[in-house]
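ENTRY TYPE: paired fold submission
RECORD: A
CONTENT: sequence, then structure tokens
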Amino acid sequence: MANIKQIIILFGGSSSEREVSIKSGEGIFQACQDLGYDAKLVDLNNISDLDFLREFDIVFIALHGFEGESGTLQKDLDEMGILYTGSSYDACKNTWNKSKFKNILESKSIPTPRGFSIKNLDKEIQSPFSIFKEKYGEEIKELFLKPEEDGSSIDIFQIKSLADLSKSVLSAKNTDRGFLFEESIDHREFTVSILNNKCLPILEIKTENSFYDYDAKYISNSTQLTEADFEKDLKKEIEDLSLEAFKALGCSGWGRVDLLQDKEGKFYILEINTVPGMTNHSCVPKSAALAGISYKKLVDLIIEDAYL
């Protein structure tokens, strides 16, 4: 680590997750300063002009949304020979688009909720329940509607009727993009933080909201993130599945795997986040704390992994 002196933290950006990214970046910046690094914090919303990054030893990516998670930034940094935290271009590209992500999981027989994609919400949509039945031969009473490319539960809606669908179209912040309808797995939700290819303590997510939406993630103080109470064999099962999915998508360094468990006990991979939140409400710092890793040490370990 002696060669690392100057660190730049990229945060903010222009995505719908800007406010989350700002809080993440500010926390990381303070930790870097406390660790003795010469750190600079830059609010970046133009990832096409990156020449100024050459003067730094490493880039800590705290940009959420397209700018930090789609793989575009990582590809450019690779071509410039600049070190950065987190997963590579391919892994980010594979996890950023939810439809592509699910296709990869299904091709490797890794369980994930079933669903189908649509091009946008601007035009009249056929009943998603009918489409699901036609595709899978099964009636379903509840679906989730979510953008193919976005995070932090932006524009995610529960759909239990066509009336719900109509309301969702009117409420969505951006309808002119790809969306995914996904079956609801309604029982328990977990998240597994991964650091240096090892699982940190598993968290169970409990919220008073109807699901783990933006408010539950970043605003509500009633959301509970508690260490999951598993028997040893079940704990190993969820850890093995999380690592299998993490590696299948080409992820490395650090990240977060979100899972659902149905009433029969089966686990499903919901999504993988290659640039997880680092706010005081975020799962990775909470999971690290359960393992005896302080926020400052967590930041240092992420930097160390990028350097190695």
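RECORD: B
CONTENT: sequence, then structure tokens
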Amino acid sequence: MARICIVVAMCIATVTIPMASGGSQSVPDRAAFDPPTLTDAQSLFYNARYEAAAALALSLRQPGADDLAGDELRTSALLFQLKALLEGHSGKEAALARCATCPDLIAAFLADIRRGQNAARAALRSSPDDETALFFLGKLDLNYVWLQLGPLRRKTGWDEYWEARHSLDAVLARNPRHVRARVARAWIDYIVDTKMPWGTRWVLGGGNRKQALVDVREAVQADADFFTHAEAEFALWDMEVRERNMARATDVARRLAQDFPDNRELAVFLETREAGRRQ
């Protein structure tokens, strides 16, 4: 695999999905005796309960069956678990070496990435225009890149980066209103423009910070299901913080906190903002 000449910890909040107050849809209520579904794992993920989300996504996996949505959610949850374990430590390489649970998490992440990539690529060999396979291949590839350049601090992922970029571009060429693809593609534009030296930006196909913000703000306004909307809102929150637009970031965080009241990351952010306002 070729090596990426990138120096950046890519902390995508992805994460990974859209909705809030004002025309947003709510998660449908389910009877208490209903078996858990991927919706429950998504709810755990967006409430920042990453370990539980990853465990539930794994428990829902059917032997021998492809589940690109489950693989993408599980790898996202494992990635955020790793980030949480290493966050706030000076010298991330030393912190990673001291982390007793990290090797198993990384091994599980890589196995699930390969599982999802293989399934998506097999689907595309049969149907090159399969929008679902194209999107999830791009999203899984990006999760791999974020792991390598973020928690692991490894300058690798060139092949996955380009495959992700081309896959997401193919989705958007066919369906410009694909909200999740717009958000994922916006992150590429934002990170390349804001974190890469000029020469590296050119090698990576260029980026566009301003357009990324426009795309994510439009994605938040798009008609989408609850968790797709949540992903867009979390992306907007992260970008507004990076832009130091703290008033806007606070507005987004308040909307998200209404839908995800158990998310301690949102709560801490809002508490810190309120404390700063009172000083």
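NOTES ON RECORD B: The chain is about 65% helix and 0% strand. Confidence is low (pLDDT under 50) at residues 1-27.
STATUS: closed
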